[in-house]
């Protein structure tokens, strides 16, 4: 199973970009990288996912290195509401449902 | 619409009680999941239903009994739980295709006394 490594915590100033690193050095060629976040006591919220190419949506950008061994989630303009635990996840398995194996995540605190 | 609903939001039960958690989605998803999350820990997968059939049981004790009556509804029946089963129970669903995005509900916070 591919596993991920993230820093346990990060602080970010409101209005600045937040860059969240993730290491997944054992990822397989057909495994996607997913990012979710969980605001305190709520259900995890999907942010973005990618395979090889960089991806961008209305919430964030995902930068995946060429060797696919690491990635960075970028929140372009952090707000106080972005304070949450951010999970970098590699989708395990080739079954159609795809098991999500959560790691410990990064606690991001956005400060005024 | 990417909404997954869960009821109840909170549940307190004794160790001899029988209760059920309910999860519902109307996105046409064919895969549904139960996760358990203890305080300050990441979610852990319990069960996966695909096309209304149980596909994965992550060695969950039999006091937790899942049920998928139809493609929109997922239940988790609880019986003879222990205090250590107190946790946030999360439901999720996905289309059931290769490119999987799981959408989570808000969870049911369970306290076993």
Explain how this protein is built.
- The complex is a heterodimer of chains A (112) and B (113).
- With 112 residues, chain A is an all-beta fold.
- Chain A has strands at 9-13, 18-23, 33-38, 45-50, 55-56, 61-64, 70-75, 84-92, 99-100, 106-111.
- Chain A is globular, with a radius of gyration of 13 Å.
- With 113 residues, chain B is mainly β.
- Chain B has strands at residues 4-7, 10-13, 18-25, 31-37, 44-50, 53-57, 64-70, 73-79, 87-94, 103-104, 108-112.
- Chain B starts with a strand and ends with a strand.
- The A-B interface holds A 32, 34, 36, 41-46, 49, 87, 91, 95-105 and B 2, 4, 31, 33, 42-45, 48, 50, 55-56, 88, 90, 92, 94, 96-107, 109.
Main beta-sheet strand count, sense and barrel state of chain B: 7 strands, mixed
What is the distance, rounded to the nearest whole angstrom, between the alpha carbons of the first and last residues of chain B? 37 Å
Q: For the largest interface in this structure, which chains are involved and how many residues does each contribute?
A: A-B, 23 and 29 residues
Q: How can the largest sheet of chain A be summarized?
A: 6 strands, mixed
Question: What is the string of helix and strand elements of chain A?
Answer: EEEEEEEEEE
């Amino acid at each position: 199973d591919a596993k991920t490594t993230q820093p346990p915590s990060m602080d970010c100033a409101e209005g600045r970009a937040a860059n969240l690193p993730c290491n997944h050095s054992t990822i397989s060629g057909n495994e996607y990288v997913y990012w979710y976040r969980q605001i305190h006591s709520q259900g995890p919220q999907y942010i973005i996912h990618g395979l090889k190419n960089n991806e961008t949506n209305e919430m964030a950008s995902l930068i995946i290195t060429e060797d696919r061994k690491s990635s960075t989630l970028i929140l372009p303009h952090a707000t106080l509401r972005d304070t949450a635990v951010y999970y970098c996840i590699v989708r395990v398995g080739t079954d159609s449902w795809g098991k999500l194996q959560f790691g410990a995540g990064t606690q991001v605190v956005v400060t005024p | 619409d990417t909404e997954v609903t869960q009821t109840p939001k909170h549940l307190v039960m004794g160790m001899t009680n029988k209760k059920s958690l309910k999860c519902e989605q109307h996105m046409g998803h064919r895969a549904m999941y139960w996760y358990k999350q203890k305080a300050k820990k990441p979610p852990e997968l319990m069960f996966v239903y695909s096309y209304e059939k149980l596909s994965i049981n992550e060695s969950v004790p039999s006091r937790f009994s899942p049920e998928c009556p139809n493609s929109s509804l997922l239940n988790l029946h609880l019986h003879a739980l222990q205090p250590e089963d107190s946790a946030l129970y999360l439901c999720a669903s996905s289309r059931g295709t290769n490119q999987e995005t799981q959408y989570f509900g808000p969870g049911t916070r369970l306290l076993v006394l």
